[in-house]
Amino acid sequence: MKIVYFTSGITGSGRIVRGISIGNALKRKHVSCEYTIISSSQFGHLACDFRHIELPVEEDTAHLKDTYQQSILYKTIAELDPDILVIDLLWFPLYHFLDCFKFKKIFLHSQAGDNYFDITIAGDRRLFRLEDYDRIVRCEPLPATLEAEEINPLVIRNKNEILDRDEAVQKLGVKSNGPLCLFAFNGKPGEFEEIKNKYSYLEDAGYTMLYSTNYSCKSFFPVADYFNAFDFIISGAGYNSFWEMIYFDKDGVFIPVKRQFENQYWRIQNCQEYYFEENGADQLVDIIVNL
Fold first, then answer.
1. 158 vs 96: CA distance, rounded Å
2. 68: closest CA among 104, 109, 21, 121?
3. Helix axes 14-28, 280-289, angle to 10 degrees
4. How far is CA 125 from the centre of its chain?
5. Could you give the CA distance from residue 240 to residue 279 in angstroms, rounded to a whole number?
6. Is the dihedral of CA 236, 241, 244, 247 positive or negative?
7. What is the spatial distance between Cα 153 and Cα 108, in angstroms, rounded to a whole number?
8. In the predicted model, what is the mean pLDDT of residues 153-182?
9. How far apart are CA 163 and CA 148, in angstroms?
């Protein structure tokens, strides 16, 4: 079975991490398959355990009704010829050609405003069509914008897979006996430095501070592996950062930032009490193998 996960990944590393979460779940459940991630992310190297194809960002006119056959995206999907294509939120580049393919299609739906599903690109209006997909899966608790089945959020590790405190501290090379605080942020370039400065006072409060961003070769990836080492975590409120903190029940604070389609402030206000035990990545793999 050939499974392809498609996403954008232009801003930050979040979408790549969701692709890795699915790949980890496929391995965990011993699914025999060829798994490929395709994206335009500069963080494809994080998916080192899986095949990743980095696509160039194409012009808005590349995926029109009369031009899509020449697009790199169309040619890549046609060449891969998957049995199942998982489309993570980025539906509109495939709008004019998705029905040309007979493979199974899953739309993975996290937070996005209603305007995301009625969009005009290069003068071409595109309305999301439920009938284009075999399954529509909502992977965080949202108002019912689309008719969809809901699974738990996708997380990169299960609870029994991360390091215990002693192992994590040893791997981090921390010598301090005092409380440890992690500042982890993977948003747009420059956001890490700007927000980091606002929390410099914690060092004076007795915390040993460790910093991680996927823009640096010194990052801890996946950062969830080291969660048990920390007494307090300062994190972004993007999908992966937020749901990892909730799933692993970590003490900390979320720092929301503005995004075009995602409302991180809404996630903080409405989802901090949404606790779950089963990893949504495992639930999604169950859907995939039974499709």
1. 37
2. 121
3. 60
4. 27
5. 12
6. positive
7. 11
8. 93
9. 35
Q: Look at the chain and count its residues.
A: 291
DSSP lists the bridge partners of residue 184 as 212, 235
Q: Are 15 and 8 in contact (CB under 8 A)?
A: yes
Q: Which of 283, 291, 227 is nearest to 83 (CA)?
A: 291
pLDDT band at 218 (very low <50, low <70, confident <90, very high): low
Cβ neighbours of residue 21 closer than 8 Å, sequence gap 6 or more: 154, 155, 156, 240, 279, 281
Instruction: Please give the model's pTM, rounded to 2 decimal places.
Output: 0.92
Q: Residues near 107 by Cβ (< 8 Å), separated by ≥ 6?
A: 87, 91, 132, 133, 135, 136, 137, 148
What gap in Å lies between CA 291 and CA 286, rounded to an integer?
9
201 sits in which H/E element:
helix 201-204
